[in-house]
Amino acid sequence: MEDNFRIGIVGGKGKMGSFFAKFFREKGYEVLIKDVDLGPSYEELCKTSKVILLSVPLDGFPQVVSELSPYVREENWVFDICSLKLDPVRIMRRYLKKGEVLATHPLFGPYEKSLKDRIIAYYPVRGKGIKAWFIELFSSAGAKLVYVPPREHDRMMGLIQVMNHFFLVLFGNILAGSKLDLKRIVDLSTPSFEGILQVLRRLAWQDENLYARIQLDNPFGRQFRRLFLRECKRLIKALDYSEDPEQIFKEKFIKAKLIAKELDRLLPRED
Amino acid sequence: MEDNFRIGIVGGKGKMGSFFAKFFREKGYEVLIKDVDLGPSYEELCKTSKVILLSVPLDGFPQVVSELSPYVREENWVFDICSLKLDPVRIMRRYLKKGEVLATHPLFGPYEKSLKDRIIAYYPVRGKGIKAWFIELFSSAGAKLVYVPPREHDRMMGLIQVMNHFFLVLFGNILAGSKLDLKRIVDLSTPSFEGILQVLRRLAWQDENLYARIQLDNPFGRQFRRLFLRECKRLIKALDYSEDPEQIFKEKFIKAKLIAKELDRLLPRED
After folding, report:
1. A16 shares its domain with A142
2. Three-state SS sequence of chain B
3. What share of chain B has pLDDT > 70, as a percent?
4. Is the complex ipTM more than 0.90?
5. Domain end marker among A101, A121, A148
């Protein structure tokens, strides 16, 4: 490894920051942690680190980038891990006039045991060095690197994160509000329903601040929520207020089944 | 095994009927198959079989039970595997005046590779022999037998089947209707979203007729669909039309997170 190839992590005390600090240290890198009232100044960070990782909440991102920006030098490499990409890329383009810049979104939380098969979306904003280094480093750790332009990224996350979280919170609230005993529900689950409960279970380790920002800041979020509500109303109308509920339900079921068959080809085998 | 301890399966050519025929044969039982225009008469079936398994669609169930009923003798044991229990138990009580009767609902489809850890809900309608035999046989094959009275059963299935299938069909239709590429969606999935896709994938092997009946015949189905819609509207109102969407979303997220934490204690570990 090059001399002075240190990694400076802004937000290094947070959950994702700690995850990456651990990862980089295990790979033999020296890591500098900066966080609120802790660690070096931005100036010092940029001088003593080659790579700057921006691991800060979405709502604090613009301020951090603008405060950091005067000290970023040509030889610095900067990457972010924000859950959205349109706005963060715009902000990095606006403020960071020097150095190489990479936008990334690790599609997993800080509680994953390994990077094996975990997906990281990336988009090179400027420079080839950081991109090559990042891809090589994380690929060799088992992650899957997927190139995604910012607009496509945010739109896909409207489905993959916004709509998914929306459903999970909705579903969790139905369970919380129902008079049904959760132990009994688990005891009487089908394999399908247990699969849904296993996904809901993952919320136990998730952060409400991050989930609120993802839900509210994704530029396509509202659109996907409305799509969800519209389809929900249509299905209820078909089942409870139509002339031939059985026929319409079967048509909709078969549509979903075709998607299921496509998924059966695309998804990795379970177990 | 007793002499003449044959199992007669009404609907033995169907998917679940075939699943059970295979199971019983592997356990060393002789199996008689009866299906539409196939196999012995009800009279002969009742004479030559000890146990009668009713494996017929919900909408054909009343007719089958009433046609079978005159031939059921004191020494016969009858059990059904309907996805609902209130109506089927009522029908069996009304028509079957002789013999022992057990209501069951295997909470899995005919494509499961083994009975290990699969759940079977049961409710003894009359007699102790069939119940003891059934529990012993299926427990020793690895299944979990859960006693559930009919009303509780149908209510639980309003959540576990009706609401779950409703969501999966809704979600499949959103994917089918969106312009997003499914391969790309899979490539950019989070572990959470991949979990949902894995559940949706299971629809590929499911039967639209059964799913339509479960959706439409469950006496608590409409109630659960309306609950789903109501919670969906509430959440959208909070996120898109309230003064403080972040605060309300966080409250709802934390409610769901508490359920997730309870699930973390109740559910078996994944992997």
Report:
1. yes
2. CCCCCCEEEECCCCHHHHHHHHHHHHCCCCEEEEECCECCCHHHHHHHCCEEEECCCHHHHHHHHHHHHHHCCCCCEEEECCCCCHHHHHHHHHHCCCCEEEEEEECCCCCCCCCCCCEEEEEEEECCHHHHHHHHHHHHCCCEEEECCHHHHHHHHHHHHHHHHHHHHHHHHHHHHCCCCHHHHHHCCCHHHHHHHHHHHHHHHCCHHHHHHHHHHCCCHHHHHHHHHHHHHHHHHHHHHCCCHHHHHHHHHHHHHHHHHHHHHHCCCCC
3. 98
4. yes
5. A148
